[in-house]
Design goal:
Blueprint lengths: L15 H6 L2 H14 L6 H13 L4 E5 L2 H10 L8 E5 L5 H8 L3 E5 L10 H7 L4 E7 L8 H10 L3 E5 L7 E3 L5 E3 L6 E5 L13 E5 L2 H10 L4 E3 L2 E2 L10 H11 L2 H19 L5 E2 L14 E5 L2 H13 L29 H9 E4 L7 H14 L8
The structure holds pyridoxal-5'-phosphate (PLP).
Pyridoxal-5'-phosphate binds next to helix 4 and helix 5.
Amino acid sequence: MAISLTPPLPIRMLDLAAQHAAVQPELDAALQSVIAEGAYIQGAAVEQFAGELGEYLGGVQVVPCGNGTDALQLALMSLNLAPGSEVVVPAFTYIATAEAVAILGLRPVMVDVRPDTFGLDPAAVEAAITPRTGAIIVVHLFGQCVDLESLTAIARKYDVALLEDNAQAIGATYRFADGVERYAGTVGVVGTTSFFPSKNLGALGDGGALLTRDASRATYLRQLANHGQTRKYYHEYVGLNSRLDTLQAALLRVKLRYLTSWTTARQQVAAHYDAVLQDIAGLQIPARDPRSSHVFHQYTLTLTDASQRNLLQQHLQHHGVPSVVYYPVPTHLQPAYQYLGYVAGQFPVAEHLCTTVLSLPIHPTLTSAQLDYIAEVVRAFFVVPSPSA
Ligand SMILES: *Cc1c(COP(=O)(O)O)cnc(C)c1O
């Protein structure tokens, strides 16, 4: 297990400062113009950014809001489901997906995921549908689309709304059997996204947005996000105060221009990892659904033997390679959701993934020397000689 090398430059899980340094003059100019214009809330950059992102995603309406969790809440509010309605959510996701359901007095119905793509399991979703089901929230986890073909068919069959939590897969595309290709987040009734700094399109603070093809729903969502007002001081609905700051919108306009190249860089990092890690017994590289592109918000390995996961993480840390477990606890076993009555053993795939997944650093500024080093450290743990040795 001896590693001869030391890491070529410190390796970070995420290196936003380096990413921003590469576009510093443009970010500075954006900042200065917002300061000079003085419209810090609902300034021109907010609508400009919404228009540009909508165009980027194939011509959809974009309603900016305060963060990705608010976006989920607003999407659900726009459905006007009866109190107590059930909303299907994955048992393996970031907590916000279930939280937005619970906070509205709706009932999160947890469903297990696929062991390969980590997305909602269509058969399990269909089995969970009841007369009270109002919506299904799919999560394109780690940057790859769920089985949208099957899940849209189920939503249609049972006449329930399909929402897409697209916080992790902005720019990913999905090809349906009929040849139609769509961007993640633009397939369901409403898609949501997050501009949390670590996301693929991150602000320098909080931000989020709703995506929809339906112009009247976009208007409704815009009103819900702004105190339910139809015009100033006239409040038609009980809404939220959830807005994207002008400053964040101006910075996001700059970063959107680089999203395609940053996504390509992430995909190159993933391809590099795939090539050097795919032959290791005991380790599964990320599965690819041929119908979806993968924008690699995370590069997530799955270990065959759960007892090795934490040891691998310690080994990596010892050699200067950060890694993170997304996510260590499935949604149904979180203390806050015990009132739903779920128990351990109910969603075996989600529970198993929580003990076997490990995400490696993936960001556009990793060098190939760093990637080679990371691969060598991983291979050493499994006592696989590196190709160059
Ligand atoms: C980040 C994230 C959210 C929440 O976004 P915030 O902007 O942090 O509120 C929701 N769902 C998923 C899957 C996420 O990864």
